[in-house]
Amino acid sequence: ELNHSLNYANTFRFDTLRLAVAVRWAIGVQYYNAENIGQPYILPTDNEVFAEATLRYPRGWLVDPFLSANARTQITESFVVSTTGKRTTAKFRDPITTAQTFGLARAFADSLNRNRLALRLGFSYKQIRSEFYTQMTDNPKTPNIKERWKTEIGVEFKSDASLKFYENIQWNGSLELFYNFQKLNQTVFRLNGELQANITRLFGIVLRTEACYDIRQRAGLQYKENVRIGLVYSL
Question: pTM of the predicted model, to two decimals?
Answer without folding.
Answer: 0.88
